Amino acid sequence: MEEVAVADTILRGIGSREQRVARAHTIISDAGHRPAFERRRGRGAGINTAGRYEAESREAFDDGWDTEAELAPFQTHIQSEAARSILTRNTSPDLPFDRSVNAYRGCEHGCAYCYSRPSHANMGLSPGLDFESELFVKSNAATLLEREISKPGYECAPIAMGTNTDPYQPIERTQRVTRAMLEVLDAANHPVVITTKSALVLRDIDLLASMAERRLVRVHISVTSLDHKLSRALEPRASTPTRRLDAMRKLSAAGVPVSIGLAPIIPAVNDHEIEKIIDCGAAAGADFATYIMLRLPLEVAPIFKDWLLRHMPDRYNRVMSHVQTMRGGKDNSPQFHERMRGQSPYAWQIDRRFQMQKKKSGLYGRPEKLRRDLFVKPKGGGVQLALI
Fold first, then answer.
1. Widest CA span of the chain, in angstroms?
2. Cα–Cα distance between 310 and 22 in angstroms, integer?
3. Which of 152, 179, 286, 318 is an S-S bond match for 260, by CB 3.0 to 4.6 Å?
4. Of 256, 133, 114, whose CA–CA distance to 197 is shortest?
5. How far is CA 255 from CA 114, 215, 330, in A?
6. pLDDT tens sequence across 262-315
7. CA-CA distance, 331 to 317, in Å (whole number)?
8. pTM of the predicted model, to two decimals?
9. Cα separation, 256 vs 353, whole angstroms
10. For residue 212, how many other CB atoms are within 10 A of its CB?
11. Strands 77-81 and 88-89
12. What b/e readout covers 32-59, taking b as 16+ CB neighbours within 10 angstroms?
């Protein structure tokens, strides 16, 4: 019962106490309860609670009658969405870009720590399992992008692709929305920075190499861990660490500038790999490195805590102690200049280790700026022409 009490505390905020205790029993007995485990195999989240805007909260849990064996595994459902706009603007001092595009809502990679999960609540869906299984495709994204960069008052600046959901998540293989947007940017000589955890980016190496010749593109590949077992548990449907490093080698060999990102650094989970990840990235052709400290905004906190309890219960107190110390005693701090790195002696130590290894690996310079002067607005692009 002591374990259940601990789990109840960890899951605070998820339904009533009775629901939390029932959920705790399920987590603790998961190893011996195969149906519960099998149903969410390949998923990062273990819970699917309602989003913060819903009037009621419901969650399925094991009541001990073994009825979950009758439920089918969670399937990925894809819906087409006619978006009204595609360029998102921001004025955050923490971000090196002021505009971004996302081809999808939700992400099949299923990263347990993903800070984008709360956005699914805007769709009336759960930031938990729904985020990685109920996906929306912005099928008109390329058309909208061409239209927006064609507008008379548009000023060219690098567009960030993959800031909310991965542009090369598994469904991109068939949907090809990211490819279509890249073709628009390529034709207009428009700079773009791509962030991904997927080796699928190599499919578009023809476009990327061509754009790189004009200094119009940079690919930023995120590597959370070199441990395949840990990576599979944290980000179950993302490419393996080996394939990501291989993608970096091939992109670099094709002349495409590549950066490596440690995102996120999780205290007592992957922080011991900082030096090795940077070194491997440099060996694979990266010319720059960045990192983000673990962030747990809104619904991400209970989802990650649930993951931690299932996979590393012995490290729970240590991990969350570091997280809360960095965030002023809370699970998350949204303050500018703090949210990406945190503030504490531990956070300072991580930053020093990171900067020292960057210098040692030859990645201490700044990436070359992408060109803006080559931009040519698409003709037409859905913009109403002037009457003569």
1. 80
2. 14
3. 286
4. 114
5. 30, 10, 44
6. 999 999 999 999 999 999 999 999 999 999 999 999 999 999 999 999 999 999
7. 13
8. 0.87
9. 28
10. 21
11. unpaired
12. ebeebeebbeebbbbbbbbbeeeeeeeb
